[in-house]
């Protein structure tokens, strides 16, 4: 009896461990597909060249791999600088942004996985808002300026990249050609090559030049009623243009290595401003010719643009 009791007592830790292991579901192995926290630093890194329209996967000691990508179409801002892979998604659901739905009200609130999903079967979400490396249901667009700001890849290429990179992999987007290591002969030690750092701009004179009124480049194709009012009414266009002039002066005063990130932050700020005035100064399409509607929208826009100009002066 004493031997039996002792045997059962020694089984308790083993049984407890077995129960704990049984509770771990097989799906936990795929937790990396939706992870949002960084894993162990990746030995690989990604460099995307906008002029080449190619994505380069670099790893020390191995030949670089290169894939064609689609980049943002003309008029769409493309983020530049450094980021990382924040999340991996298999069979992602596509959610159009507020700007995309405003430009095309016929877009659905979301598109589930399937052949009509613009993200394809795989997506690597980056640190920039609403920017990802993903597949596509329009493979003919790869290699061209055709996306809404993301980086599209051919289905087979994104499937391979998805398996090769992990959450935390660094990503650099460069406006010029990517500098990648040359293929190494057998037995040679690969030497990492750093991307060039642009030379800092010359210091600005102490006396600032007169502030220009910079027009909105979207005015030539503006379709939304509020944006047309800003573009066509001289007092609103002047307020908007002065804020843009201040933003340009602010960017010119920054060191070159900070300028791209600051330009993208200003772009995001402009998008948030557009969302705010759309909600506050809303005009139903076709009603902007009504004098009362136009007067109310004009006063609302004038207040919002004045606040934006004052914020730009304090920057």
UniProtKB/TrEMBL annotation:
Origin organism is: Azospirillum brasilense
Keywords (A to Z) from UniProt: Cell shape, Cell wall biogenesis/degradation, Glycosyltransferase, Hydrolase, Peptidoglycan synthesis, Plasmid, Signal, Transferase
Check the UniProt entry and state the signal peptide residues, or none.
1-31
- The chain positions of domain L,D-TPase catalytic read 44-174
Q: Which InterPro entries match?
A: LD-transpeptidase (IPR050979), LD_TPept_cat_dom (IPR005490), Transpep_catalytic_dom (IPR038063)
> What is the protein name stated in its UniProt record?
L,D-TPase catalytic domain-containing protein
Please list the GO biological process terms of this entry: cell wall organization; peptidoglycan-protein cross-linking; regulation of cell shape
- Family matches, as Pfam families: YkuD
| Family that this chain belongs to | Belongs to the YkuD family.
GO molecular function annotation? glycosyltransferase activity; peptidoglycan L,D-transpeptidase activity
